[in-house]
Amino acid sequence: MEQDLTQAMKRLGFTANESRAYVALLRKHPATGYEMATASGVPRSAIYNVLRSLERQGLVNVVQEKPARYIPVPPDRLFNLLESRFARNLAEVRARIETLAQTQDEVPTWTVQGYEQMLDESRRLIGNARRVVMASLWQREAVALQESLVSAVEGGAELVLFSFTPLPEGLCTQLSYGIAEAELETYWSHRLILIVDHEHVLMGGAENTEDNRVVVSREEPLLEVARSNLVLDITLYGERTDTDTTGAVQLLTVPLAPVEKLLATSLAAPDPASDTKALP
Q1: 25: which of 64, 85, 97, 194 lies 20 to 30 Å off by Cα?
Q2: Angle at CA 159, nearest 5°, toward 154 and 162?
């Protein structure tokens, strides 16, 4: 147990000697530096520097002089000190990360590795949605992201989900074939495509492994690839199930050129060559 406590304190930022000295003092106090060195295994040449460090940190107090005897702070005070230290460090790390993260806006594409990290990034993107969230995903990932998806809808975003597998109920527009995941896993690995506000796309693997990788991007060519993939799947779904998917397709194609309109105009326009009079 004492070894576990020492290891835990090291993870909180204490040195090995500080951890061993404090644990020894908890076990028996008050104690002199000599007694603590003997009980903790900290070298006598180092014990007093260790005690001064613990005293500066507020973890031990001197209760007697000549020879000095030390006592540990009560556990509740120790916890308060650790919480305060952690809060300060966290605030400093947050400030520095936010400063550095300002440069991330200049990076249009990046990679996220790890299944849980992929889910966290998906939740972050969905949480920032203002207008529309569209995704092609499997049941497992839909369940994992359900809370974020519901929050996006409650915040006013439109939601369109496509899946070959069943999807949780109550998530707005759902286009699902309802194939059991176990059956589909025989042929395919889990994949995820997520488009948010036509500004960000996340796409790649969704395998529950530490080396799972997805790409996150603001680049239009990658967004267009993701949209095209979703349009194809949704259009085929509509044909196979005799379902009207016009609304979903229109949401996906809003940023694209109005090809149908341009074609109609082009086909209706007279052919200039037909007005050319034949030469004698």
Answers
A1: 85
A2: 145
CA distance 191 to 206: 5
Q: Which residues lie below 8 Å from residue 159, measured CB to CB, with a gap of 6+?
A: 132, 133, 134, 149, 152, 153, 171, 172, 173
Q: Say if residues 70 and 29 touch (Cβ distance below 8 Å).
A: yes
Provide the 8-state DSSP code for 104.
Answer: G
Pairing of strands 191-196, 173-176: unpaired
Burial classification of residue 260, based on how many CB atoms lie within 10 Å of its CB (0-12 exposed, 13-18 middle, 19 or more buried):
exposed
Q: Answer with the residue of higher pLDDT: 201 or 90.
A: 201
Q: What is the CATH number of domain 107-256?
A: 3.30.870.10
- The CA distance from 17 to 60, in Å, is 14
| CATH code assigned to 2-75 | 1.10.10.10
Say if pTM beats, i.e. exceeds, 0.70.
no
Where does CATH 3.30.870.10 sit in the chain? 107-256
Q: What is the pLDDT of residue 263?
A: 66
C-alpha span between 40 and 37 (Å, rounded): 5
**What burial letters (b/e) apply to 7-25, b meaning 16+ CB within 10 Å?**
eebeeeebeebbbbbbbbb
Matching residue, tokens 């496509």: 162
The pairing of beta strand 69-72 with beta strand 158-163: unpaired
The helix/strand/coil state of 109 is: strand
- E strand or H helix that includes residue 176: strand 173-176
Q: Where, residue-wise, is CATH 1.10.10.10 in the chain?
A: 2-75
User: How far is Cα 24 from Cα 51, in angstroms, rounded to an integer?
Assistant: 12
